[in-house]
Amino acid sequence: MSPRRTYRGNVRLVLFDVDGVLTDGSLHFTSDGEFIKSFNVRDGVAIGLLHEYGIASGILSGRSSASLTRRAKELGFDVVVTGSSDKLSAYEAIKQQRGLIDEQIAYVGDDVIDLPVMLRVGRAFAPGDAHVLALRYADHVTRARGGHGVAREVAENVLLADGMTLDEIYRAFSSGEVRSAIVQ
Questions:
Q1: Model pTM score
Q2: Domain count of the chain?
Q3: Coil, helix or strand for 34?
Q4: Nearest to residue 60, comparing CAs of 129, 109, 105, 121?
Q5: Is 2 domain-assigned?
Q6: Is residue 180 part of a domain?
Q7: Quick one: which of 15, 24, 97, 121 is 20 to 30 A from 134 by CA?
Q8: Domain span at residue 98?
């Protein structure tokens, strides 16, 4: 088996919106008024995949919730910003804190609140069921709908754009050489 390929691409951080990207956008409320979100297990593998190739991951969400905080911790996101309605200011702060430039950041958004960040980053992604303006300004539209494996498709796309094949991308997984924690 040939050695694992090193990622040489430009993307150093992938930021994800949550509602409509990592979830399908539905909010289920308990009798106590807490809302529950459903996350897709494929997206957990995506975060591990990014980390395996040295690409940081983050959440930039307008909402905050206990379920989101728990999932973000469980998956090991490098950056977690929640409850931020001014996503562009939050994005600029993240960029500065991490010492990155726009071209090194990818963002996945699904609605008009995401447009300022989508228009700034090096690569913008949108789920297949995103708002028409998010679809228009995305560099890549996923086949997956929000909450149905969008992050997995984005992670693979970032690595495929570097010239890797799916076999190369997953070689470390199939050989048991994975260094990153993979949580579904």
A1: 0.90
A2: 1
A3: coil
A4: 109
A5: no
A6: no
A7: 97
A8: 13-175
If you ran DSSP here, which 8-state letter would residue 114 be given?
G
Would residue 7 count as lying in a domain? Answer: no
Q: CB of 24 within 8 A of CB of 110? A: no
d(CA 82, CA 69): 8
Residue whose token pair is 């071209």: 103
Q: List pLDDT tens digits, range 134-159.
A: 999 999 999 999 999 999 999 999 99
pLDDT tens readout for residues 104-121: 999 999 999 999 999 999
CA 143 to CA 150: how far, in whole Å?
Answer: 8
* Inter-residue contact 21 to 154 (CB < 8 Å): no
- The verdict on residue 136 lying in a domain is yes
User: How many residues are present in the chain?
Assistant: 184
Residue with tokens 């957990």: 44
Give the CATH number for residue 131.
3.40.50.1000
